[in-house]
Structure formats: structure tokens, C-alpha cells
Amino acid sequence: MLTRHLPSAAVLIAAALQLGCFPDYFPRRKARDVTDSQIIGRWQLRPASAERFLADPVPAGTKSTAEFSSGGRCSLTNFVDNGDRYSGEGTWELGTESDRGGSPFNVLEIRLSNSSGGRPHIFRFSFSREHKTLILWQYIGDPDSREYTEYERI
């Protein structure tokens, strides 16, 4: 009688482990319906992302922000990219990209024109939603580490 219920119990345990213990194991769901009007405005580094950069924190009293204007212009202040900070004027463009042949998702490409070395620095961010709030994010290093730099609109 007990052996008859073992397969069902194994399936339930496996499902519980995947859904409860490993919520960040599966890739983020990337937003596919972002519009320019949702990007325009001021964005700030989320507190959880700021804590990841304590080895090289943003100076006290200074925020890490991006201001996106209509017409594709932007202004970055202490903008974090893989632990480095950038400030200056640049441009932004909303585009789409496909991941392994799937349906296209939105990406934001930011070009900072006055970067060191005389060449523009290019940032590429994806979008996700958390509780209906749009999040601008990119991986920190290896995507398998599931660590992100995240900005939210303020």
C-alpha cells in the first residue's frame, strides 16, 4: 500500500523543492511590452543592489541614478555597471532582442559619450516586473550566479 503512493509523494516533494527552495534558480521573466513613456523619468539603484557594492560604495549622500528624457537623451550619476561607476551625458534607445529563439523581449541600450579612452561606453539592460513595478536590470558577472544590478523608477 505504501509503495503505491511513493511516486505521487516523490512528485510532490520535487515540486515543493523547485517552487519553494529555488525561487531564483529559473531565469527572470523578461518584459516584452515596455514603451518609451515608461522609461522617461528618473531611475535609482535599488537598495539591495547598492548593498552588493559595499566594497566600493557610492559616496555618502550621493545616489546612483539615471535620468531618461524624451528624444533619447540621458544623464547618468554614479551609474553602476559591474562594480564600476559612470557619470555623464549620453543617449538611450529601447529595442528588442530574442533569447534562444523565443519571443522578443525589451532591452535598453545606453551610450555614454564621454567615457574614458575617447570611445562611448555601452550598457545593455533588460526589464522585468516585480509586483507590477518595472525593474531595469543586468547580470553582475556570470548569469548563473543570479546576481543583478537593479534600478527602479522613482
- Radius of gyration in whole Å, from Cα? 19 Å
Walk across the major sheet and give the strand order: 1-2-3-4-5-6-7-8
- Span between termini: 59 Å
Q: Biggest β-sheet, characterized?
A: 8 strands, antiparallel, barrel
Share of β-strand residues: 35-45%
Helical residue percent band: 10-25%
Q: How many domain modules? A: 1
Secondary structure tally, helices? 3
CATH fold name: Lipocalin
What's the architecture, going by CATH?
Answer: Beta Barrel
Shape: globular
Low-confidence stretches: 16-25
Write the layout of secondary structure elements.
Layout: H1 2-21, H2 36-39, E1 41-45, H3 47-52, E2 65-68, E3 73-81, E4 84-97, E5 105-112, E6 121-130, E7 133-139, E8 148-153
Antiparallel strand pairs: 1-2, 1-8, 2-3, 3-4, 4-5, 5-6, 6-7, 7-8
Notes on the protein architecture:
The chain is an alpha+beta fold. β7 and β8 (148-153) form a beta hairpin. Mean pLDDT is 78; it is low at 16-25. It is 19% helix and 41% strand. The relative contact order is 0.18. Strands 1-2-3-4-5-6-7-8 form an eight-stranded antiparallel barrel. It contains three helices and eight strands; from the N terminus they run ααβαβββββββ. The chain starts with a helix and ends with a strand. The chain has a single domain, classed as Lipocalin.
